[in-house]
Structure formats: structure tokens, C-alpha cells
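User: quick one
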Amino acid sequence: MTETATTERPRIRDAEATQKRILAAARKEFAKSGLGGARVDTIAQRAKANKRMIYHYFKSKEQLFTRVLEDAYADIRTAERKLHLDELDPETAITTLVRFTWRYYQANPEFLTLVNSENLHRARHLKGSARMHELSRPFVGMVADILERGVAAGVFRPGIDAVQLNITIAAIGYYYLTNRFTGAIVYERDLMTKEALDARLAFNIETILRLLRA
Amino acid sequence: MTETATTERPRIRDAEATQKRILAAARKEFAKSGLGGARVDTIAQRAKANKRMIYHYFKSKEQLFTRVLEDAYADIRTAERKLHLDELDPETAITTLVRFTWRYYQANPEFLTLVNSENLHRARHLKGSARMHELSRPFVGMVADILERGVAAGVFRPGIDAVQLNITIAAIGYYYLTNRFTGAIVYERDLMTKEALDARLAFNIETILRLLRA
DNA sequence: GGCAATGCACGTACCGGTTAGTTAAGTCTG
DNA sequence: CAGACTTAACTAACCGGTACGTGCATTGCC
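Assistant: Done. Structure below.
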């Protein structure tokens, strides 16, 4: 990203700033209504931009959606890198990852609905995105490393697939949060109180550690 | 349901049959495109019914969606009841439930996308549905029973919340399947081969048993 | 001055929902 | 039990609103 000098006078015409506003508004709108339900006019309004700008910079609603998705994945992967899991002992690293994933999903609920939307469309917007592979590979490799280190240290049992583990860590947080509305009905319980959220995190950490421990 | 006598000549005008065709077509269309992306005209066409019939029987697109959702939950709960988990020993019962859930989601992928769609809309269609509570309560109670029996028999550790367990069993299957498209990109692996699916089921059973065992 | 950034206003297609009317199937009556 | 009557199932055509996308004019910035 370019630096945001504090002394910079606000330009009336600022391509970059406009694009950012459009992307932020689009993320909100797509997250709220899905691809089919999202309205380009609403995005333009919320971005304080003219609809013409959206088509100028992003060509189509679908290409805008693609860009929003890629950015969303880039954001979470960037945040994960900042955890420096490779510097932690295996058990702490995994616990940190479970806790981080949980908190990230809570702080960024749009990520969850965006991913859901993209999967409804069979990931056709991200299919073939080189950027996605660049983002994912280091992350998956990192978790595989933690596992290996854990096995070598004798704290984790051998033979666990890093991909299965990754999916499971995501699943137990993701499902609870995206399906919290139907969940509240099925289980007749408020799943979003502080106590409920804390209990779920503890449960998830327990689930993963029991899965891994030798 | 009324009996379907084999000798019955197909009536030209058959309210019940038409409603069923509409519901089946609607489930498909809503599952494929979400509430916002679904087209009432498409549903009418696929149901071989006039669009007017949809409004006659279901009042609105949203009420049709509500009905489709309720029916989907009724279907899975009915299938679960047929497992007679109360007649199995605790460990077998849980394993059976994990396996059933996994297979049901695979055989009925529309259920997953419908639930996702409803959660995108914060469950406003199912909120206050008495039918949903009637369906859910026995199911949740059943799993709680299995847990209790397992603790009494000394095979499960005490203190596990039945709701957390239920959510986790659903999560580890559900997430893998709904997010299989972005998953294939992130993990650069086909998640839907027979081998991959078998491996996931085994992993999920292991995850749950390790979570429960004393 | 030249070009990128922006705004206006419109086209065209579509979409949820409705109006007005038709026809099949039961049902009442003599 | 035949034929008039009633009701419910069904259809075609349409409407008002809205959605994505664009042509073209304008304006700020280097």
C-alpha cells in the first residue's frame, strides 16, 4: 500500500481512494446480500462514488466481486503471517492459530459470508486465480511445519494430514459463527453471549489438542 | 401423505401434486442461486406450473422459501430418527451419527446451501417457526441422552455440553462440503474423490471420539 | 492541453407480483 | 343419472419498478 501522509491535502479526484471506497462498500454489500442480492447502485451510493466509476475500474459486478474476494483472502493470510507461528512451540502455535481463527472470524464476519457466496457459485470467480495460490501455499506449509515439529518433539502423534487439520480448525469456528442464526433456533440458545463465545473457544481448543496429542 | 394408488389415472388438475412440484423446483432453484439469485419464473418453469400457482399456494417468494427451509429441516430430522440411536451403545451411536450426518450432507447438498442462504438472511424466515422447535427438541435431547449414557458407562468423560458436541459434529462435515470449491483452490487438492471423502469421514470420527473418550 | 476521473441520464432487459379470464372436476337437483 | 351449477385449478398477458450496464459530456489535475 502507498503511505498516507498526514499533510496531504485531500484531492477531489483520487483514483486510488475512490477504488478503495468502492471496494470497502462492495465488501459490505456482497457480504450482506450475496452476489445475487447485492445491488451495484447501493455499492456506488455507499462508496460515495458514481456507478460509472465501478464499471470504469472493475468492468463488471462479477469482476468487482472477484476482487473483493481476493482481497479478503489476502487480508486473513496477512494477519496470520503476523502471528509468527514458526517461532512458537508446536502446542502453543496450534492453540494460537485456533484462537486467532476464531477471533478473526468474529471481527470480520464479512469474510465468512463472502466465502459462502463464492462457494454457492462453485468458486468460479477464484478459479484459476494465481494470487490465491500464492497466498495459500505458505499458510498450508506453515501448519504442516508445526505438525512436523510437534511430532518430532513427541507432543503430537504422527500421521496427521495438515490439510485435514487446517480444515477442521476452520470448520469448528466458521460453522458456529455463520450458522449462528439457525443455530439459535435449533438449540434454543443465544450463541453470541460473551459466555457462549468463550465456552466455544475453550471447547474448540480442547477438540484440536485432543485430536493432536500423542 | 395420501396413498398413490397405481391404478389412479393422473389428474389434469391436482392441487397437491402441483404444490409438490413447485416445492421440489423451488428447493433446487433456491439451493442453486440463493434467495436473491433465485427466479420465480424459473421455479414455475421447472415445476411445469404457471407462476400464478406459486403465488396462489405460497403467497410470495419469501413464504415459498420459508416452506422449503422448514421441509428441508423436517427431512433431515426424520432421517435421523430412523437411525434409532437410543438403541445403540453410546460409542456406536455417536459414530453412527457422525457417519450419517456426513452421508446425508453429501446426498443432499441442497440442504447445506439452503441453510447458508437462510443464515445470510439472519434466519428471519425461520424465526418464530413453531415447527422448527418441534423438530429440533427431540434431536438435541437424543444426543444429550447418548452423552449421559456414555458417561454413566465410563466410556465418555463427563462435563461435555451436548450442544457443543452437536455443533461440532455438524461443523466438521458441513464446512468441508460447503466450502469444497474454495477449499480445492486453497489446498490445491481435489476434495471430492472417493479417497478424499473416505479419509475425511475417518478423520471426523477420530476427531469426535478423541473429544469424547474418558 | 491532454488525459484521467467523474457525473448525468438513459436503454433495455428482467423480475416479482397481479389482473382477468378459462376450464376441469366435483356436486346438487329434479 | 343427466345436465346445470359451483368451485377450485390453472393460464396468458401484462404492469410498474428496478437492475446492470453505457454513451457522452464535463471537470479537475499534472
